[in-house]
């Protein structure tokens, strides 16, 4: 019985790290650009499908893990330059409307390209099988998932906290005008940050694919969860996305063995509880 | 080097600058004076492209500036130390400086650290932890790293203790001594008299007076007419 809980706890951590990757991208974009990206879940979906295609063509999951997120980021960069940069100055409601439109286009295009039924993506051969420790059994892929997502998170943290680019992103989240006054091309910074944030959703989509496959209608659900995580953790906070993501992942996973129907209820309940106690989220600033 | 020719700037429908003209020559320190609300900050914001003048021309080293992006104007060699200093609170002192470093600049990190030893001591502190004087020093140091040919300061002594003001005057004199052109908005007339070559006085969005430092010093009626008597 205890093993089952440990199993679900680990599952929850893996799921939580995926949620973290999605939410941290959303929150960085919001922090710098003050932009609400409702297409974030659709880019996640695209990551999963591009992984499927890349695996189908190359037969190599590792290559897919590299190519698919880059392709998602490149597309995001193009969409930013063509469309999104024109709507930063509009109220959030307009931004939601436009990005919701982008999400629908991506979703329907995915159905056209890959069909209405989901696609399965095999676990890479190196990670098939399970870890056996006495009575405890755990799939290698899920362990890899936790470790890899943690590595990406660490790399992202170093990027944001230790590089000039990261300092500019943090500075820009305080005042884009002052950053411009220092001669930084703020539009380029915006494009790169948008592509980075969306690329993280792409990474999450790829990592998720061998677990649940690529499903055409998963976007809105993922987007919903990402927003719950961001609200729990606090808008614009890296640490908040991590803690919020893990919290939601673990709660969801534990509930699935305790009371499956109540899983989403618990998540939204947790969000409501956090907002009541700390309106700006666990790590948020007013 | 800087030539502002009868610019008109607005906030929505409110007409704030009604044909402001001014010049700053090479190596000159020029002040822009005037009561609160006269349009001094708006003039600076117009030069840097934060507010776009609807009429008039601004040229700098032969380049037209009106209509360009803020970062592009800054790259031509104009640095603004803004009214509220614009220190990034979440960044450390050193990060605040490093994001401004430009290769060709006469001032590099070591130079500003030797000019402002206090900043070096506090380089690992967060921007939020600085006193008003330290913030002002940081804002000036950061502007210098950006490699300006023209340094623009918006009320740098505002809210600072007299000792710090004296220190600031020394620093500005030193920067001027290195040949940098400076446009200074300032309410403290002692500071202006100590530093300036020429003065402009703005009133309700127009230049009401301009004159050399000597003319300005010898004519108290100007101060009474156009400026608050607080100095
Ligand atoms: N962001 C703004 N929106 C609308 N009006 C403004 C804004 N900033 C300044 N003003 C108005 O423009 C006029 C000039 O302001 P400003 O340039 O800040 O004056 P100064 O710097 O000389 O005190 C004032 O009447 C002020 O109320
Ligand atoms: Mg002002």
Write the layout of secondary structure elements.
The complex is a heterodimer of chains A (286) and B (231).
Chain A: H1 2-33, H2 40-58, H3 61-82, H4 92-114, E1 130-133, E2 136-139, H5 140-162, H6 164-174, H7 176-181, H8 186-212, H9 219-233, H10 238-258, H11 263-277
Antiparallel strand pairs in A: 1-2
Helix pairs in contact in A: 1-5, 1-6, 1-8, 1-9, 1-10, 2-3, 2-4, 2-8, 2-9, 3-8, 5-6, 9-10, 9-11, 10-11
Chain B: E1 2-11, E2 14-24, E3 29-33, H1 40-47, E4 55-60, E5 63-64, H2 70-75, E6 78-81, H3 93-98, H4 109-115, H5 117-121, H6 132-145, E7 150-154, H7 162-177, E8 181-185, H8 189-195, E9 198-203, E10 206-212, H9 213-218, H10 220-226
Parallel strand pairs in B: 3-8, 3-9, 6-7, 7-8
Antiparallel strand pairs in B: 1-2, 1-4, 4-5, 9-10
The structure holds adenosine-5'-diphosphate and magnesium ion.
GO molecular function (chain B): ATP binding
InterPro entries (chain B): AAA+_ATPase, ABC_transporter-like_ATP-bd, ABC_transporter-like_CS, BCAA_Transport_ATP-bd_LivF, P-loop_NTPase
Pfam families (chain B): ABC_tran
Q: How is this structure best described in words?
A:
The complex is a heterodimer of chains A (286) and B (231). With 286 residues, chain A is mainly α. Chain A contains eleven helices and two strands; from the N terminus they run ααααββααααααα. Chain A has a two-stranded antiparallel sheet with strand order 1-2. With 231 residues, chain B is an alpha/beta fold. Helix content of chain B is 35%, strand content 26%. Chain B has helices at residues 40-47, 70-75, 93-98, 109-115, 117-121, 132-145, 162-177, 189-195, 213-218, 220-226, and strands spanning 2-11, 14-24, 29-33, 55-60, 63-64, 78-81, 150-154, 181-185, 198-203, 206-212. Chain B has a six-stranded mixed beta sheet, sandwiched between helices. A four-stranded antiparallel beta sheet of chain B has the order 2-1-4-5, covered by helices on one side. In chain B, a hairpin with a 2-residue loop joins strand 4 (55-60) and strand 5 (63-64). The interface between A and B is medium-sized, with 19 and 23 residues. Bound molecules: adenosine-5'-diphosphate and magnesium ion. The site of magnesium ion (MG) has 3 residues of chain B, from helix 1.
